[in-house]
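Researcher: Structure for this, please.
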Amino acid sequence: MILLARPEDVDGIAAVHARAWQGAYPGILPASTLQAFTVDSRRKYWSGVRLDDPAGERPVFVAVEGDSAVGFAVCGRPRDRDMPFDAELYALNVDRATGVAGSAAACLRIVSTILQDAALATSISGS
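Model: Predicted structure, token format:
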């Protein structure tokens, strides 16, 4: 199930974020960087994100299986205003250890729909 993230999802998102990076980037990022990328460091980061603002410019979605977060996605307007796009996917992280391969695809489908709706709303309002 894919849901709009809430403040109570911080621990699950932090755990997915840390495990996803530690699993994806060995040999790409320095080991010291990955060692510092802990659940605690991610919890501090995610605690500062306004997950309780559904109308925010950067919605965060969490993929949940049972009682556990297994992935998350963040999207919004392009950070580079010169880009010829109406929207950007900032992050899509899935915990490979959960074996839930469909979570990434489900997150991407939901975010894609949200971004398309936002682009349509922007073009209609002319802003």
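Researcher: Any notable elements?
Model: Strands lie at 2-4, 60-65, 68-76, 88-94. DSSP finds four helices and four strands in the chain.
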